[in-house]
Amino acid sequence: MSKKAFLIDISECVGCGACYEACKEQNNLPKTSDDPLRDTLSDKTYTIVEQRGDYYVRVMCKHCEEPTCVSVCPVGAFTKTDIGAVLYDESKCLGCRYCMQACPFQIPRYEWGSLTPRVQKCIMCYDRVREGNLPACAEACPTGATMFGDRDEMIKLAKQKLAENPDKYYQHIYGLEEVGGTSVLYISPVPFEQLGFNTKLIKTALPNFTHEALSKIPTLVTVGGVLLTGFYWLTNRKNEIAREKFEERKNKRGEE
């Protein structure tokens, strides 16, 4: 199956909360707020709609092309699937919460109130998508603000919208290149920093830095071992010389 992605057109979102409600129903999540616009991401809420000025912005897991959560998890509890969704296997989780610290979008949430806590986040309605259906939020959106399909097609559509309506859209697709690209793309009528997006993210996928750091460990160990061996030899040699000089002085005093 080809890699999928969301395309969220902020200019079309009316803040109705249909995506929020559909996500709750699909994932059997309890109601946590009477007003979807006042709720926050939590272990019981995987997507929210925030009002930012005159616009509404969906917040959810970005399903990065090269997820940092996957690269930092020491037990492989996170995986990037062939359809683009980033999934979590609670049976492997150690509860270290490195994923929460590493995520550039601060998405994963922890079940602090549970005796057997898990990490929770959007999973792109993985089972629905595998069966050929839309994610619940995209299916429920009444205005077409949340679109879903092959990632290449979503990118093509986003570029087409920007090219055909240069006065309507800010000329940037958020998520196309940020941290190596994501599976949740946004287009907007205003610059993204005005909507609270982090626009200072680098284009390089963050796991590249993890791999680069880990790749240096064998070298560091080797160099460190050589240096320690050298220090050990020098220390022993210095002690030997000191003993030899002591014996020489002792012998001279004995001869006198």
Summarize the structure.
The protein is an alpha+beta fold. The chain contains eight helices and nine strands. The protein is elongated.
Walk me through the structure:
This protein is α+β, with helices and mostly antiparallel strands and 256 residues long. It folds into two domains: 4-207, Alpha-Beta Plaits, CATH 3.30.70.20; 216-255. Helix content is 36%, strand content 14%. It contains eight helices and nine strands. It has helices at residues 18-26, 68-72, 98-102, 126-130, 136-140, 151-164, 207-215, 217-255; strands at residues 4-9, 48-52, 55-59, 78-80, 86-88, 109-110, 119-120, 146-150, 184-187. The strands form four sheets. Strands 8-1-9 form a three-stranded mixed sheet. The protein has a two-stranded antiparallel sheet with strand order 2-3. A hairpin with an 8-residue loop joins strand 6 and strand 7. The chain is elongated. The model is unreliable at 213-217 (pLDDT under 50).
